[in-house]
Write a structure and sequence with these properties.
The complex is a heterodimer of chains A (about 170) and B (about 400). Chain A has about 170 residues and is of the alpha/beta class. Chain A has 4 helices and 8 strands, in the order E-H-H-E-E-H-E-E-E-E-H-E. In chain A, the strands form 2 sheets. Chain A has a 6-stranded mixed beta sheet. Chain A has a two-stranded parallel ribbon with strand order 7-8. The chains are: A alpha/beta (about 170), B mainly alpha (about 400).
């Protein structure tokens, strides 16, 4: 497979993919906000500092990654930091997809909403809020989307049982 | 959290003093034109839509959570239940994602068969869309015609997998079994006559003044709005955005097929209707190419620890029996990592995000379904139009609630 190349770590990616438009744009914007990077199975993952995600989204959008596809979370309970947010963004011109990653602590996870950059994130962020209990600052209508409004708990967290009573 | 409990879905009307004139109307969840259990809370001023809020979740079954408790191969039948009108597209997306995690090479014949079946699924899905959409508008006849052709596709699926709708025919590493002997002849017979059938639908609808009047200029969506709101697939291409994952980020050897991606710039329901009709014709071309150039060879990858052995081998060879037992009872470990696989489903860009922690069960599976994002654009398309146009727009964006609510 053509995806054999694997680059783990920020320095490896910065060397191996120095000409990549998303890497260049993020570096030009703020090298400190880029905490980690990975190129695995043909997918570029850029880990962004938690407070910077909205600006990072605007940066890659300006760099040609124009289409927001998906945001979801992964619960790494009981390790710390507990939550991983994965934003998938497609470029119609480069015909390529990148992933922005944000790591959040388990206490009261909160992150900036990217709905000002891509209104498409509205339902996706509500879904993450509903099923993982992660709050999005600046979201226009943050309420449960799948579960009833009076539901207790967040079903996709790992400490929530798959079956039986809670 | 608590502040949303009991909060009205649509809060006080935007305009001051509009309380008296505006009415809140509930469409669905049990409404014949809502394509499932979609509930729309609509604020109307007379007959003009002022605001519209889609309320979803009535079909939520927690499939993503269920996946975390299953082995990788047990998730395949669950994916059928998401977009139940195009099961093969869901299977394909999931299998491709796990195969990339495993770095598994798929034999050429399996890849071509997958393309053929994905396109048959597209025909199946578009036929249902066309029939129900026309029925919503009031053209009842077309429904009977499209379901006649769909029946033949379902019979082909039944001969192939034993199931009409929930086929679960794809496996991680290939296909579940060899296609039956008459399969290729039946598909050939079907697509030989199918272009005439599309002409027949077109004759019934394209020149129909009522159908035209209900669709032209209705449900406008600009290219910028389509991108901003995450709309994909035929809906996005109807607004003039030229992007199709089959052509631009090919998977499963789509790069070996020649086909056109139809584009329209109007962005109304009529453009979406025309695009899907052309897409059906292009699908027929792809199926014809797949039939003509179908390579010989195995339909499963050579990976005995991942792919179930043939029945005959299992009965005669000790190792095959051991592998079979191990796969069924304890699954197979998948290397740690994360993969996002996107495909062009009949409804738009579908993406499955699979995270593995190195065990035999997926750590996290997330389904990015096109209908979910398309629903966000519904308010933009309906605002300022008549209430009756909502029905036309909901029909034209082709949503399936099974994949929205998951």
């Amino acid at each position: 497979m053509a995806e054999a190349k694997t680059l783990i770590g920020k320095t490896a990616v910065l060397e191996g993919l120095a000409g990549h438009p998303a890497v260049k744009a993020v570096l030009a914007w703020s090298p400190e906000a880029l905490l980690d990077a990975k190129f695995d199975r043909g997918e570029l993952t850029l880990t962004i500092a938690a407070g910077q995600i909205r600006a990072a989204a605007a940066t890659v959008q300006a760099a040609g990654y124009n289409f927001f596809e998906d945001v979801t979370a992964v619960d790494w309970f009981p390790s710390s930091p507990r939550f991983q947010l994965s934003y998938h963004i497609v470029s119609h011109s480069y015909k390529e997809r990148i992933r922005l990653r944000v790591m959040l602590d388990g206490g009261a996870p909160t992150v900036d909403s990217i709905t000002p950059v891509w209104p498409a994130a509205d339902f996706y962020e509500r879904e993450v809020f509903d099923l993982f209990g992660i709050s999005f600052e600046g979201h226009p209508n943050l309420r449960r989307i799948m579960m009833p409004d009076d539901w207790q708990g967040h079903p996709l967290r790992k400490d929530y049982p798959v079956e039986g009573y809670r | 959290m608590t502040e949303t409990i009991g909060r009205p879905i649509l809060e006080a009307p935007a305009a001051e003093g509009a309380h008296d004139q505006h009415m809140i109307l509930n469409m669905g969840p049990q409404h014949p034109s809502m394509h499932g259990v979609l509930r729309l809370v609509v604020e109307i001023d007379g007959e003009i839509v002022v605001r519209l809020y889609p309320e979803i979740g009535y079909l939520h079954t927690g499939i993503e959570k269920t996946c975390e408790a299953k082995f990788y191969h047990q998730v395949v039948p669950l994916t059928d239940r998401l977009d139940y009108l195009s099961p093969m597209a869901n299977n394909l997306c999931y299998c491709l994602a796990v195969e990339r995690l495993l770095s598994l090479e798929i034999p050429e014949k399996a890849q071509w068969m997958r393309v053929l079946l994905a396109e048959l699924t597209r025909l199946n899905s578009h036929l249902i869309w066309l029939g129900t959409h026309a029925m919503d508008i009031g053209a009842l006849t077309v429904f009977l015609y499209t379901f006649r052709e769909r029946e033949e596709i379902l019979r082909i699926f039944e001969g192939l997998s034993g199931q009409r709708m929930m086929t679960s025919y794809f496996r991680i590493g290939g296909l579940s079994m060899e296609p039956p002997l008459d399969f290729f002849d039946r598909v050939q017979g079907f697509i030989r006559t199918f272009p005439e059938k599309i002409d027949e639908y077109s004759n019934l609808l394209t020149g129909n003044p009522i159908f035209k009047g209900r669709l032209k200029g209705v449900g406008m969506l600009s290219a910028d709005d389509a991108i901003a709101l995450g709309v994909t697939g035929p809906n996005m291409r109807g607004s003039g955005v030229d992007f199709d994952l089959r052509r631009d980020m090919p998977y499963s050897s789509y790069e070996k097929f020649q086909f056109k991606v139809p584009i329209a710039t109007e962005g109304d329901c009529w453009a979406r209707y025309e695009i899907r009709l052309i897409e059906m014709r292009e699908s027929v071309k792809i199926i014809q190419q797949a039939l003509d150039g179908m390579p010989e060879g195995p339909i499963k990858a050579d990976a005995p620890k991942i792919v179930l052995p043939d029945r005959e081998k299992m009965k005669t060879q000790m190792e095959a029996l051991i592998h079979h037992f191990k796969i069924v009872t304890e699954g197979f470990a998948v290397p740690a990592g994360e993969v996002y696989q996107g495909i062009e489903s009949p409804r738009g860009q579908m993406g499955y995000y699979v995270v593995s922690d190195g065990t035999a069960k997926p750590y996290r599976v997330h389904f990015r379904n096109p209908s979910f994002a398309t629903l966000q654009a519904l308010e933009t398309m309906c605002k300022g139009r008549m209430l009756a146009d909502v029905v036309a727009v909901v029909g034209s964006i082709d949503i399936v609630l099974g994949e929205i609510d998951r």
